[in-house]
Amino acid sequence: MPEGLNLSQFLPVFTSIRDLQPWTMDKGSERRLTRTSSKVGDTAVKLNRNLSQSTMRRKSRSQSMVEQHTVQTDPKTRKTHSSNEPGLRSMLYGLAMKMEKEEAAMKKRQKKQLVQEEKAMQAAPSQPIDAAKFVAYVTERRKKRILFKGEYLMIQRSIDMQKCRSDVASTMDDRNAYPDTLPYDYNRVILHTMPGDENSHYINASYVNSWVREKAYVVTQAVKTKAANAEFWRMIWELGSNCIVMLTKVFDFMRVMCAQYWPITSAQFGEIEVETLETKTYAHFVIRTFRLKRLDEYKGLESRIVKHFHFTEWELDSFPYISAFIELRRRVRQHTEKCFADAPIVVHCRLVANNELRFFP
C-alpha cells in the first residue's frame, strides 16, 4: 500500500450509505452496517499505525548504515570517532601489515638480484676467448642466462662511464642527424676551430682502434643537412683520409637514409671543392674516385685523391650477402695497402656505429 495513505478517509463512504438509500434500509441492516463501518475504521487506523512504524524503522535502519561508514567529530572532545571504529582500525592495521610484508619481500628480491648481477659481471671475460673453447663458452651461458646479462651490464656500465659530457654536442642540432646518438668525449673527432665559430670543432664522429693500430677508423653518421655536408668534407680533408666506406643506401623503402653528399661532376662544400673523376658500378657496390681541392693561403692550391666505396645491397633492418660484403672489404684492404697511408678509414651508415661495427675486421 502506498506510503502516507490514510484508510480513515473511506469511513464517510460507509456512513453515508444510509443517507443515500434511506428507503431500503431497515433497522437490522443499519446496525450491521454501523458495526461493519466501525470495524473498517478500526482496521484502517491499525494499518495506518503499522505503516507509520514500518516507515520509521526503515529510516532508522538506513541512518544507522550511513553512520557506520561516517567518521564523526565529538563537539566536546573534538576527537574523531566512528560507530564501527574497532573494526575499521583492525582492517587498516591488517592492510598496513600486508603492505609492509610485500615491501620487505620486494627489497629482498632486489638485493638478491643485485648480488647475482654483480657476480655475473665479475664472471665476464676480460681477455679474448679461444676459438676452440667458444662453443663450450656459449653453451654454458645458454644454461645460465644471468651470465649473458652480466656481460651486457658490463657494456652498459662502461657506456655510462664514458658518455658524452660536452655541452656543444647536445646543442648542435644541425650537425646531429640523431640527437640521442652522440660521440663520447674520450674518442670523438675534434676539428680545427674556424674563425668566427667557436663550436666549429664539433662533428658527430668517433675514432675506433683496430688490432694493428690506434685510430684506424672513424665512424660517423649519415649526412642529412648542408651544414653537415660541408663539415663532413672538412673532416675528410683535416684527417687526411683517402678512403670512405658508405654502408647504406641513399633511399630505402621511400625513405631518405643519407643525402647524396658527393657531386655528379663537381661542387664546392665550404673551403673544399669536390670533383667526381670516375664511377664504377658492380653488382653489390659502387666505387667512386674523387679529387679534393683546397686553396691554402700559405701552401697554395692543394689536391688529394679519395676513394669512395658505396655498398648498395644493405637494406634497412637486414643483413647483407656475406660474399658481397667480404668482397667489399677485400677491395678496401687492397686500396689501403697500396696507398700506405696512416690516415683513418672513414666509415658511415645511417646511424653511428650501427652497420659500421660489422665492417671492422
From TrEMBL:
GO terms for molecular function: protein tyrosine phosphatase activity. InterPro entries: Prot-tyrosine_phosphatase-like, Protein-Tyr_Phosphatase, PTP_cat. Residues 148-349 form the Tyrosine-protein phosphatase domain. CDD domains: PTPc. It holds the Pfam family Y_phosphatase. Residues 62-74 have a biased composition (Polar residues). Residues 50-87 are annotated as: Disordered. PANTHER family: PROTEIN TYROSINE PHOSPHATASE 36E, ISOFORM A (PTHR19134:SF561), RECEPTOR-TYPE TYROSINE-PROTEIN PHOSPHATASE (PTHR19134). This is Tyrosine-protein phosphatase domain-containing protein. The lineage of its organism: Eukaryota, Metazoa, Ecdysozoa, Nematoda, Chromadorea.
